[in-house]
Design a protein that fits this description.
The protein is 47% helix and 5% strand. It contains 15 helices and 6 strands.
Amino acid sequence: MICPHCARDLRRTERTGNVCGHCRRSYALDPKTNPLGLHDLRVRRVVARLTRAGEIRVTPGQLWYALSRRRLVKSEATSGCIAAALFAGGITGVIGLDEDLVLLHIASVALLLLTAGLVLMRVAGVGKGIPPQSREAFRSGPLVEWKKLYGELPPGLVDDGRFPRDSRPAAAERRAVLLCPDPSVAAFLAADGLPGRYGVVLAEDMHEVSAHCPDGPVIVLHDADARGHLLVREAREALPGRRVIDAGLSLRSVDGMPWAVPYRDEQDKPDSATMDRLASGVGLTPKELRRLARGWRFPLVGVPPARLLAVVTRVVERTIRAVDPDRRRAASVGFLTWPQAPAQGPAPAGER
């Protein structure tokens, strides 16, 4: 790895105890000692991409996905494992033929069978889509080590350890609600000023929607997972008479997007009752239901931050314009309707 201080290329023996053997300065992360293979320079590089060199601020949840992304597409049976097993099996077999040793013949057959098994695992995608480190473990592991050394989060990151409730506009200025159960996404939107700019209340659950904004439209932001698809239905059932707008993700909407790599959680699959509700009127295809039942999902924190902010802003603007007569009049004469280039998110971060 490269020392983040003196830029020297360090071998493993030159960086004992997370200390550079040349400049004698400490660093936070060693790629050999954390599941994501992180080092300080990579974290800084990815944060710079996510924030567009400081134009916006992002959260640890968004950083976690960006750093995990390239590992999600890999199977547990990597090309290196397959090649190593095949090479060892071939060499053992050749030596066994020359020496006529039964044990080497057996070892060669075993290694070749192992190779075949690894190939089948790779084809079947065993281990694919499983994060090497959970979002919670990332926050309590690498980020804690970073803060111990540098005293704060990487520049450009805002804390998402709690739902942001101190960014709500005054009661008289509240025009709509953004229902968003993910504290990372809510903290991101609050840090970039969206609630105050548009008079929008960020709510974590249905109770907060009614308590802090008893009327007006409700915009639902959710992940592409089983709970997310049900959240919109639950909001409409719990808030009869109010306009509920589905602004969340679905596996269908992100399918084929180059930046969208779904993941799965074997420990958090939806139960049968949830799947029964999903199958009865949410509009999902049998294929989508099967994927959700297996735990596949795509989170809002996986959307490139600049793209996510632009899309949510457009939805909020259209919603506020529909309920605010002053904004409707302004839009009719061209205000707030300047031509804009399509929102293009940054290239997927975390690739290097």
